[in-house]
């Protein structure tokens, strides 16, 4: 039922005492080794020694994705490179990825937290874990892989793609746990139907889905189509990767965040002030055991709420509710993170294209699609169709090459995209979430 009973069920007072001790230690470490923190703490007039209670955390400044970009690639690392055994990076966001480094101990902690997450989802040592999260710089594949090995399960490192082969392997190898994005799970269901495979004939019992937003309605659909329990898992590269928080199979209500390693706060994204328990706001996380790149009060931009009420599973760690969106405008298209502004800057660099555009995101047969509607200048618009087609292809190619996203470019008449007096609507997201 638990992977690490002692820590997963630590009574709250003991958990909070541990958090405070670890918080004080990490503050000392970053203050001593990361110039960025020394500067921002000094500017805020606070020293690590001033933090005497968990409540004092609120006095510390936030860390943002922009801070990480500004110190690209290794500026926020708190240990010498010789101690870093793994580097991951998250896709998209700017031309440059966000880079994170792990010491051996960081990998150990991550593996343990992923192993705990597997057990929380109802998986165990005897399971065959079909890991269809992508392996590579993305944290999904290797994160789940190490956790599965730590658990002692049999992991199939299949990674993403080649769906027919995935289905064959699931059938032949007797996969009992599926790990992938929820949209990919639904796509597998479609392919299976086309192949005449019935999930009722497979051994899958649990699916552990995350890395992108999804809804209760989507859970119902996945559970019905794949004939398994669908569990929500949350994480982000900056903080660790998958396994920061996960639902328990007993309640399937809220994701337990591993509070012996992370301190969560929920703030109003505009004022930066904490909101009352149960209210929605932006999730802020402080890592209290990380060595490679500890983050203090990191603004995740993810919108959720937190509940401290006891859970029927017996774990004492607080639960965050299903993510309902982001406080910035980052889109996740087929697992690739992208900001509208990145597409904008590509469009603006192309001759004959006007800076008026609309991104239409949809989900067709369970796969995300992106249509880029963009105005072209008068001169080009009256040109022959061949020239327009060539321009559309060029836009598609540049977006693919620079951002790794497949899209369809639709060139539209000058002035046909609605103008706005306030914030422009750049994105229409038709995915029903
Ligand atoms: O997506 C880590 C991960 C891998 C999580 C596999 C779960 C499973 P990034 O690529 O850095 O890391 O993207 C992190 O994805 O800030 C959220 O906006 C979004 N996200 C992740 N999990 C969920 C979820 C991985 N369960 C960003 N629900 C985060 C909603 C999620 N959004």
Query: How many β strands by DSSP?
Result: 21
In the predicted model, the low-confidence regions spanning at least 5 consecutive residues are none
Overall helicity: 25-40%
Number of DSSP helical runs: 12
Largest sheet: 9 strands, mixed
- Please, how many domains? 2
CATH architecture classification of the largest domain: 3-Layer(aba) Sandwich
Bound molecules: 5'-O-[hydroxy(phenylacetyl)phosphoryl]adenosine
Shape: globular
Fourth-level CATH superfamily of the largest domain: ANL, N-terminal domain
Using only C-alpha atoms, the radius of gyration works out to: 23 Å
> Hey, roughly how much beta strand do the residues contain?
25-35%
Descriptive account of the structure:
With 433 residues, this protein is of the alpha/beta class. It folds into 2 domains: 1-329, ANL, N-terminal domain (Rossmann fold), CATH 3.40.50; 331-429, 2-Layer Sandwich (GMP Synthetase, Chain A, domain 3). Helix content is 32%, strand content 25%. It contains 12 helices and 21 strands. The strands form 5 sheets. The chain has a 9-stranded mixed sheet. The chain has a 4-stranded antiparallel sheet with strand order 10-11-12-15. β1 (84-90) and β2 (98-103) form a beta hairpin. α5 (104-120) packs across α6 and α10 packs across α12. 43% of the residues are buried. The model has no long low-confidence stretch (mean pLDDT 93).
